[in-house]
Amino acid sequence: MYHVVVGIDEKESHVRRCIEAVVNLPGDPAEKHVTLIHSFSDNPSGASATQVHSVREAGEMLDEAGIDYDVEESSGDPADAIVSTADELDADLIVVGGRKRSPAGKALFGSVTQSVILGANRPVMATGVED
Asked: Which domains are seen in the chain, by residue range?
């Protein structure tokens, strides 16, 4: 079984690219398991990750591909949540969506993708985006 942790934000183009990358990984869909992780930065209504449209869309795409998945949620720093979830589950791969940002933008605001790449002790696939 090949276990992949996918960081899911609210941006649907990121989600589509991430799930397409997982679907296109070598191997039979039955040999893959995906954990979708969504980290809430602000959740005053107490929603669960399964209520987030992008998480539902990722699940639908995985269902269509015949890939088993589960959903995790956290609050706080998304990069920390993705890396710690992958560590706890001993995942084989982390998949995150990239975002076009200038070097100054990354320095001022940080980058979840960059933090995951630098903080993970396992392979990370960063998908491109069309923004």
From this structure: 2-127 (3.40.50.620)
